[in-house]
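Format notes (please read before filing issues)

Several people have asked whether sequences and structure tokens are stored in separate files. They are not. Every record keeps both together, in the order shown below: the sequence lines, then the token lines. Line labels are part of the format and must not be stripped during preprocessing.
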Amino acid sequence: MINAIRHATGPVCLRLIRDRGLICEVSDASSISPHLRHARTTDEGGRGLLIVAHMARRWGTRYTKTGKITWTEQVIAADASG
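Then the structure lines:
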């Protein structure tokens, strides 16, 4: 989300969907696809998507008429309350 706020054009929207897992979608008006980087130890940034890729079950980007949506799918631990 921070990268979208810093680098995207137009409005940025966050949508969370809880189903069999948690889907997090960040949309913006840019058509530029995010890409994984392997930041050097001296870099101040460039690790966000790499961290997301390691923590998420799946992630990707889909394009819309007004820009793109970058999404992640994460496992949710079983609800302990029953």
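For reference, the curators noted about this record: The CA atoms of residues 22 and 44 lie 29 Å apart. The first helix runs from residue 2 to 7.
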